[in-house]
Amino acid sequence: MSLEHLPRLPQRLVEMLLQNFGAPEWLVLIAGFLVAASTVVGVFAGGFALLSLVERKTLARAQNRIGPNRAGWFGILQPVADGIKMLTKEDIVPAKAEKILHLLAPIMIVVPAILALGVIPYGREWIPVPLELGLLFFFAVGAMTEVSIFMAGWASGSKFPMLGAMRAISQMVSYELPLMICALGVVMVSGTLSLPDIVDRQGGFHLGFIPAWNLFTPWGLVAGLLFYVCSIAEANRCPFDLPEGESEIVAGHMTEYSGFKYALFFMGEYLGLFAISGLGITLFLGGWQAPLPGLDFVPTWIWFFAKLCTVIFSFLWIRATFPRVRIDQLMRFAWLCMIPMALLTLPAAAIWHFAGRGLLSWVVTVPLLLIPWVIITVIYNKRLAPTLRTYRFAE
Fold first, then answer.
1. What is the pTM (predicted TM-score) of this model?
2. Where are the chain's structural domains?
């Protein structure tokens, strides 16, 4: 078995073992599916633990400090120490809380992220669940996140979690609209909702060395940048981490949570970050396609995870660089900039497709996107942006 088939090795071993024992076909299929799902969960659960350490190390480096360095060699066991701490902390449930919903909320925020990770094609031979409507399924299960956040705020029985949940939902709904619109352009050009087929449509190279990824088209570049910004907001990452704005509204919908329930919220956030980054790579960066010709000997899943690490590191870099924005700036930016530009990518994608995807397509789509971008930017910065505040101190 080659390295290309390595991620599917546990699944195939279990299937072969059951077939040798004469197990029925339905049992073999179910067992293979469970093992494939366990492989994905195991990989990204380990990625969650590693990313929590890498992020703290990266932020420490950016802030000229050391970071975690006590637990294990260079702090490598810090995620284990954090896990033990969360497991041993007391689980405090408020007296006025809806106890069943209070328990289900952190579970429901992890489940959608795991389901979304199951439909992403990680390699040519590693597609956990090859659904024909994979993109639709991704957004359908992703909508459960808003429900879980509302459950967390409502079930806590306190006004602060409820206010934080409402603010988080308003942010996620506002940025989910341009996110889906940008993905719709990819569907229009590719003609399919199947994520593996979308990756296949981006195979090959232009001029012998430029990857035929959607990002390297006028509409794809704009849609990809918008999708990237919306992904930051959807994942509650800085500078759009308003749901966790401790300096403004305590800890948002997680205010009344402690112990392992609190850790589940962060696990769901990181798994959601992996999922939305993987979707962006699938839609705009060619998925598991190699970036240069002649590199097909490298297993495709390695290319996918190399792109995933690059995208994740850019999120960490942005968190270490930009301050948190205000809620009015956040919402104004979504409705006055992101959504109008996302809507413009749809006619641009249609013109690109029907004009032959050649020089004529470039000549038409570049002005169609560039001119409104400049106009919206000027209007937003000069007229609609909030004026500078004047602070008057008591004398």
1. 0.90
2. 1-88, 93-377
